[in-house]
Structure formats: structure tokens, C-alpha cells
Predict the 3D structure of the following.
Amino acid sequence: MRTAEELRADFEAYVGALPLSSSLGRLEEALRYSLEPGGKRIRPVLCLAVTQATGGDFEQALPAAAALELVHTFSLVHDDLPAMDDDSERRGRPSAHVAFGEGVALLAGDAMLAEAVRLALIYDDPGVARELVDATLGMLGGQYLDITGDDGDLAELHRLKTGRLFAASVGLGLRVAGVADEDQGPWRAFGEDVGLLFQVVDDILDGDGVASRLPPDAVSQLADSAADRAREHLDAVREDTGVLRGLVDAVASRTA
Amino acid sequence: MRTAEELRADFEAYVGALPLSSSLGRLEEALRYSLEPGGKRIRPVLCLAVTQATGGDFEQALPAAAALELVHTFSLVHDDLPAMDDDSERRGRPSAHVAFGEGVALLAGDAMLAEAVRLALIYDDPGVARELVDATLGMLGGQYLDITGDDGDLAELHRLKTGRLFAASVGLGLRVAGVADEDQGPWRAFGEDVGLLFQVVDDILDGDGVASRLPPDAVSQLADSAADRAREHLDAVREDTGVLRGLVDAVASRTA
């Protein structure tokens, strides 16, 4: 059983050497720049850890994990554009559009989404790509609610913008391991609650979202109860979930 | 055998009633706006006509045809953004970003690519989605050459930016009809030459690309020889290719 740190290192090695489509030419530089280490890699590590916990070979899940990180990174690159959040820094470095220009950043984001699907289509099970694409559409629906301020239902915004890709991180891990549909319930419920936990903690760290609408105690309680439910879902399965429990603790206590 | 006009009408009816992911919420409006009739629909009609000519049911090819048009439309919506070509009009109407704002247009383009893949994944043959995504990556590589002015090799730019999606239009039509790999050769060569013909005529109409680099006679000859080769590829097959020949004539003689 590999630890979360080991899985993260395996993932970095895989992504660093990931062959991209030769058609991209020098656009590849902008993709690689945005994919370089620095992110938390929570989604891919979650995917790898779920495959490992459910009896699969984590190495088989590396393309799926990279596809998840590519979708996440594509959303960040487009989100940082002046037309959206207009953030000139990402992870302490110039955003892609500052480093490469807006047009190239736009195309690089598009290409990351296409590369993500290409990786998901490596698997015999087309459900891997289908689940990734459905989650991406949910994420985009959430981003739409976010930028249009049509966020009366903050829970729905969270469920879409962050939750869907977290749920897919668990879902893809299950698919790669070949877990039967009827055994996926607690794992998928776990994915939903980890996603919610991640987003509530994000809001606390950024002072926005639920953290700007509820008193601090209520927000802390939201996070605690999401973490508790995530752990309870893991209690419901027989497998060794030590690595996944560690990930819940890490998400609950993260400070950046 | 349905005519090109009938296939176009079938396609409009299908796209007009196409169910999109419910997760998109009101972002759907921006997708529908950009997908409304007005475009030439050459790629989807080509796909439907190839399926029909090779003995398949054209109705089976409607999702693939819509996926091709969604990829094409997504590229136009992103291309029109101020960060790229900054075009405020498209087909005589305000561009998506003028009508909905830049952020929404950006997300709508992303969502069109994801919806395209979702449609391509309807088929049992994962090769449909794989070919669509590979063509999309090629198209993006071509757009990169275009916006960076790294277009020393104009033929390569054309082959990528326009040619790949045209070739995929034929390729997806073949896949849906279940044409064996060993019988696809002349059809695929036909797709390459129709794509080249389309791009040369585009350059003539816009006065750029090859039309700005070669004397008019030489450009006309490029177009004529691409059209001739396209027809010769059709001569090499036994099927009734009347509709496809009509499409070659229409592409060769278009004035807008």
C-alpha cells in the first residue's frame, strides 16, 4: 500500500513525462507550464488512492488521474483570464496568460480539456471518459453560476463547481479498479463529502462563499460534519482506507 | 438517398432539439445561440452524406455530425474573443461574447467541446470519440500556428486548422457506417482534399493565407487540383457518390 506522499510522487513523475499530442507543436509549452508541480494534486491522488484501496493497481489509474488534473488545470487557466477572474498569479508564478499571452492561454486550456479526454479514452471502459465529461459539464455549469452571480443556491454552486470533479475522482478510481456498480455506493458518497469539505475549507481560507454568509462557528460545523460523514462512509467498507482517511484529515486541516 | 439539402434540414432539426446537459443551467442559452442556423453545416452534412453513401443509416450519424459542428462552433466562439481575433460579428449577428459577455462566451465554448465529446461517446465504438478528440487537438495546434504567426509552413497550418476536422467528418461518417479499415482509404483521402479545397477557397474569399502569397492563377490552380483529386478519390469507390460530388462542387464554387 503506497502512502499519499508516494502516490503524489508517482503522479508527478507520470505527468512530467506525459506524452502530449504531437499536433500541438509549441503550444505544448503552455500546457506543460500550467501542469508543473506546485498544485496540491488532491484529485489525482484521491483517484489513485481509491483504485489502490479497492484492489486495483494504482499505476493503471495514472492516465485517469492525469485526465482529472488536466480538467482541473484547464479550468484554472481559463478562470485566471482577464475575461473571468483576471488573476495574474497562480501558485506564486505568473498565470498562463501573463506568461504566454491571452490567446495562447485560451488555446492551452482548450487543449488540456481535449488531452484529458484523450487520456480517459485509453481505457476499454468508455464510462471513464463519459464520467469525466459529465463532471466537466457540471463544473462549467458551476462556474457559470459563479461568474453571473446567479449563486442564490450556494450549495448547488459548490456541488457543481467543485463537487462534481471530486466525485469523478473517486468514480474514475472505482472504474479503473473494476468495482461493481452495486458496491460503489459508500465510495461515491465519500467522494461527494470530500468535495464538499474541500470547498467549505476553501471558502474559509478565502473568506468568501459560505464563510461570508454564515457565522464562523456555523462554517466550522459545516466542515466538521462533512469530514465526519466522509469518515463514516469509509467505515462502511471493509477495505483498508488508511490512506483515504489521511487525505480527509489533510483536506480538513489545510491552510493554503 | 437523401440530397445534401435534405440532410442539412435533418441536421438543423436534430441540433435544434438536441438535449444538452442539465448541469449547464442557463449557460445553455449561449450554446444554443451559437448553434442556431446560419452556418454552412458543411462538416455535419459531409459526415451524414458519407454514412449514407457507404450504406449506413444517416440518422445514426446525427450525434456524430452534431459533435463535429459543436467542435467547429466552439472554435469560432473562442476565436471571436478579444484575446484572439476580436470579431464582434459572426454570421451577421453579434458574436457570443458581445451577446453574453466574454466570460460566458469562454465557458460556452468550453461546454461545447465537452458536449461534443459527450455526443461522440454515445457510440459503442470509442474510436468515434478518439478520432474527434485527435482532430480537435490538431485544430488547436493549427490555431496556435495561426495566432503566433508561426505560419512559415502554411500547408501544415491548413492541414491542422481546417483539414483535421474535415478529415474527421469523413472518418466519423465511415465509423458510424461500420466501414472496414481496409476499405476506408479513398474516402479518407477524399476528406483530406475536400478540407484543403475548403481552406484554399476560404483564403481566396478572405484574401489571406495562400491568396496573399501566391498569384491568383496559382491559387485557382491549387483549388482546382484539390477539387479534381477529391473527385478522383470518389471515382475509386463503387458506391453512389452523387451527393458527395455535389458537396465538392458547392465547396469549390462558394462565394461566402
Notes: Residues 4-253 of chain B form a domain with the Farnesyl Diphosphate Synthase fold (CATH 1.10.600.10). Chain B has one domain: 4-253. Residues 154-177 of chain B form the longest helix (24 residues).
